[in-house]
Write a structure and sequence with these properties.
It is a single chain. With about 500 residues, the protein is mostly beta strands. It has one domain: Porin (Beta Barrel), CATH 2.40.160. It is built from two helices and 21 strands. The strands form two sheets. The chain has an 18-stranded antiparallel barrel. A two-stranded antiparallel ribbon has the order 1-2. It is globular and about 65 Å long.
Length: about 500
C-alpha cells in the first residue's frame, strides 16, 4: 500500500524562431543606461521584482519585465541559467513592499463552448475576476504572491459554469555564499491552460508570475473538452556561489495534472535537476545541466516513464533590452511498459512487456526583447511530456509568442499565438500509440484607457486542433475542433499601494 501511495504521488519555435534570435544577436546593442546615464549594475544578489503594470490580456508572463519606468533604475538579472525560472531582462529597483488589487468583468460570444468536434453552436459567457499582487521586501528576502479568482457563467443549459483560480508564489532568500528559492504555480481552470481564452482574454496573472520553465511544469496542451482541471507545480531551488563568475544549482520539483468529472489521465511528474553556471563576460553565460524526471499516472495505464537529459545552455542578457537562453541536448526515455488496467483513455492487453530505452533530443529556449514601447516574447521547448491527460506519454513541441505595445503607464494591447504538437510515445499495449495532436491558438487585444486605473478591453481568440485519427470530446467525435471567442470588458487595476 505504501509503495502504491508513493508511486501515485510521483505519477509538460522551431528553426525560424532561432533565425530571429540570431538576427537580434548580430544587431549591435548599446549598453542600457538608467535615467542618470549609469551603465548596467554589477552582479550581486537577486534584485527586487518590479511593481507590475497591467499588461495585455494576451501577453505571456515572460513579458512582465518589458514595462519599464524610465525614471527607475534597472538592475541586471542574476537568475541562474540552470534554475527553475527563465532568465529576464532585469528588475526595477524597488525596496518597498506593496499590494495591488484588480477587478475585471467581461462578456464573451463563444462559437463552440463545449469544444465539440461537431455540432458547434454559438453561446455566451459572463466572466468576473478579482485578484491581488503582493510584493514584500524584508532584509534578504523577496516574496511575491499573485492571486486571481473568479468564474465563467454560461447561458447554455448544457454548458456548466466554470471556476478560475490562479496562484503564483515565489520567495527568494539570499545568504552570503548561497541562496534558496521556493516557487509554486497553480491553475484551476475549466479547460486546457495553453491558449486559454474562456474569460474573454482577461489578464490571468496569478500562476504566470513565477515564470517557471517548461521542464518544471505539467501543462495541458491538448484541447480535451470543457471541464475543470488542476495544474500545480512546486519547486525548491538551492544556488551556491563558487566564485564571482560561477555557481551551482540544485532543483527538486513536483508537478501534477488532475481532471475532475471525466475519464482523462491524471499524471504526476517528479523532477530533479543539477547544473553549473559560468559567466564568460558581462552579458554572456554558459551552463551545463543534468535532469532526471519520472512521469506516473494515478489512473489508466500503470506505465512509468523515466527520462535522463543533458543540456548545454547559452544565455545572453542586456539589462532592460534583451534576455535570451537556448539550451539543447540528448534525452533518454525508459518506458516501464506495465499492465494497462481498465479506465483512462488507453487500452491494452493487461500483460507487462518489460521496459525499453529510446533516445530523443530536448530543447528549452526563451527570448525577450524590449523596444521603446513594445515587447517581444518567444518560448520554445521540445521533449518528453506526460500527454496532457489524453496520451500516456508524448513528445511535445510547444512554441508561444507575444507582441505587446504599451498604450499608457498601466494599460497595454497586443498579439499572441502558439502551437503545440503532441506525438504519442511508442509504448507497447497503449491504444493511442502513434497518434498525433496539432493545436494552434492566436489572439489580439485592445485596451482603451478611460482613466489611469480603468480601461475598456476588446479581444479576439481563436483555437484550432487536428488529429491524425478521429477523437472524441464528450459524445461528439471528429478530426478537428475550431473555436472563436469575441469579448468586451471593463478592467480596474489600482496603482501599487505601499504598506
Amino acid at each position: 500500500m505504501l509503495k502504491n501511495l508513493i508511486r501515485e504521488r510521483r505519477g509538460i519555435i522551431g528553426f525560424g524562431g532561432l533565425c530571429c534570435v540570431l538576427a537580434i544577436l548580430t544587431t549591435p546593442v548599446a549598453k542600457c543606461q538608467d535615467a542618470n546615464g549609469a551603465s548596467d549594475q554589477s552582479q550581486g544578489n537577486q534584485p527586487s521584482q518590479p511593481i507590475p503594470a497591467y499588461h495585455s490580456p494576451l501577453a505571456s508572463s515572460s513579458q512582465d519585465q518589458g514595462d519599464v519606468n524610465d525614471s527607475t533604475t534597472m538592475q541586471r538579472d542574476t537568475r541562474p541559467l540552470t534554475g527553475a525560472q527563465y532568465i529576464s531582462m532585469g528588475d526595477l529597483t524597488n525596496q518597498h513592499s506593496y499590494w495591488q488589487p484588480q477587478v475585471d468583468v467581461a462578456g464573451t460570444a463563444d462559437s463552440n463552448p463545449t469544444e465539440s468536434p461537431t455540432n458547434a453552436n454559438w453561446g455566451g459567457w459572463g466572466s468576473f475576476l478579482g485578484g491581488v499582487d503582493i510584493h514584500q521586501t524584508s532584509g534578504t528576502s523577496q516574496l511575491m504572491l499573485s492571486y486571481t479568482g473568479g468564474g465563467m457563467f454560461s447561458n447554455e443549459s448544457d454548458v456548466p459554469s466554470g471556476s478560475v483560480q490562479e496562484l503564483g508564489l515565489s520567495d527568494h532568500i539570499t545568504f552570503r555564499r548561497s541562496a534558496v528559492s521556493f516557487f509554486d504555480q497553480l491553475y484551476y481552470l475549466p479547460e486546457a491552460g495553453l491558449g486559454f481564452g474562456g474569460v474573454g482574454g482577461l489578464p490571468l496573472t496569478g500562476g504566470g508570475s513565477t515564470g517557471l520553465s517548461s521542464g518544471f511544469s505539467n501543462a495541458q496542451s491538448i484541447l480535451s473538452g470543457y471541464g475543470q482541471n488542476l495544474e500545480n507545480s512546486s519547486v525548491f531551488q538551492f544556488e551556491g556561489f563558487l566564485t564571482p563568475r560561477s555557481s551551482i544549482t540544485m532543483d527538486a520539483g513536483y508537478s501534477l495534472l488532475h481532471f475532475f468529472g471525466n475519464n482523462l489521465l491524471n499524471s504526476g511528474d517528479l523532477t530533479f535537476q543539477g547544473g553549473y553556471n559560468y559567466q564568460m563576460s558581462e552579458h554572456n553565460t554558459l551552463a551545463l545541466s543534468y535532469a532526471f524526471s519520472q512521469i506516473s499516472y494515478s489512473n489508466g495505464p500503470s506505465t512509468l516513464i523515466d527520462t535522463h537529459s543533458l543540456q548545454a545552455t547559452f544565455g545572453r542578457r542586456v539589462t532592460g533590452r534583451l534576455a535570451l537562453q537556448i539550451g539543447a541536448g540528448p534525452e533518454f526515455a525508459i518506458y516501464d511498459e506495465g499492465a494497462n488496467p481498465s479506465g483512462g483513455t488507453g487500452g491494452g492487453s493487461g500483460v507487462s512487456s518489460g521496459s525499453s530505452t529510446h533516445a530523443y533530443w530536448s530543447v528549452n529556449s526563451a527570448l525577450n526583447y524590449q523596444f521603446q514601447r513594445t515587447a517581444l516574447g518567444l518560448d520554445y521547448s521540445h521533449g518528453v511530456g506526460a500527454g496532457s491527460g489524453v496520451l500516456a506519454g508524448s513528445i511535445v513541441d510547444m512554441v508561444t509568442g507575444s507582441l505587446t505595445h504599451r498604450m499608457s503607464r498601466t494599460f497595454s494591447s497586443g498579439l499572441t499565438g502558439g502551437y503545440a504538437r503532441n506525438s504519442a510515445l511508442p509504448i507497447a499495449g497503449i491504444q493511442f500509440s502513434g497518434r498525433n495532436y496539432d493545436y494552434w491558438f492566436a489572439g489580439a487585444s485592445l485596451a482603451r484607457p478611460l482613466s489611469e486605473t480603468v480601461a475598456l478591453t476588446l479581444s479576439y481568440q481563436m483555437q484550432y486542433q487536428t488529429s491524425s485519427s478521429s477523437f472524441c470530446i464528450g459524445t461528439s467525435c471528429g478530426l478537428s475542433v475550431v473555436r472563436h471567442l469575441i469579448s468586451v470588458g471593463v478592467s480596474w487595476h489600482e496603482r501599487p499601494l505601499l504598506f
